[in-house]
Predict the structure.
Amino acid sequence: MIIMKKRKFEQSDFWKQINESQLSFNKIDNIDDFKSSDINYKIALFNPKTNGIRYLKTLIFNIASGLNKNEWTLLQNIAKRNFGKPITITYNNQQICLDYVQAIFELTFLLKNLQLGDASILEIGAGYDRTCHAIISNCDIKSYYIIDLANCLQLSRRYLKKVLPEKDYGKISFIRESNLSELGGIRFDLCINIDSFDEMNHDVVEVYLSFINQRCNFFYVKNPVGKYFDKSLDDHSQGNQVVELALSQGVLKDVIDIHNNVEVEKQAEKFLKAYSPGKGWQCLSNSWAKPWSYYWQAIYEKKGDQ
Ligand SMILES: C[S@@+](CC[C@H](N)C(=O)[O-])C[C@H]1O[C@@H](n2cnc3c(N)ncnc32)[C@H](O)[C@@H]1O
């Protein structure tokens, strides 16, 4: 029989420190909520309040591990996507950030339903415009019009100039939201709205939908299906006023549990009605827009002038 020396099993200094602090006996007297407390953050779960980057990187890593061959090809076709120092992980020797894997999911959904070769595209509310970057890098489109507020318009103008070759950059027109008339009588094959109708005044969304109804053949929309009021998600860190403002924007203002798939799917029925540009439009396809639990996407086609 082997007899181990007792001290071999002694706790390390590392665990001694834990047992004297987070796991001290008085702290584990009551274990009613220990799984979401410092106790479990020393056992099974990284503290989500202080490990945001870790969770983000884990999310990106998991997504990257599930990308298929076609998605990798679309991603690799987008040069200079690491400009601007995004938070990335490395997978298959590629640096990957969350923005561009989302762009790949959006583009894949679009390409399942549409041919974008030679298309004339209008995007409303573009941010720095990863979407334009992803589309132009993968499809030989004719033109890309961006409508946005002055600040993001300046950002996308500067960003796209940095990341796109001259020839592709030359296909883009930048239009202030107040200058829709600059578009003249152009008809667009496709209009895109990602994550921004939800942040505009209700009547502004209605004006844009009416514009799409009159001037576009297809409409791709990806937005939240509703609002949320769960302080545990962000500690309302930007203050109550910003929370109130966010709750008041857009056309889908129901407050739901955004991490309940049944509630999200139910709310998606309202989403599909709210974002249809008009009576003559038909929804060709719609689905949950991963990875965020409460985003939905749909593509509509104009079938007639009703
Ligand atoms: C959250 S960002 C989303 C950007 C981008 N689509 C993305 O997903 O990365 C919202 C965008 O909507 C734009 N926006 C807000 N109000 C607008 C309006 N009235 N007209 C046009 N764009 C607007 C903002 O300037 C910004 O570019």
Summary: Residues 98-113 form the longest helix (16 residues). The two ends are 89 Å apart (CA to CA). The mean pLDDT is 95. The domain at 98-302 is CATH 3.40.50.150 (Rossmann fold).
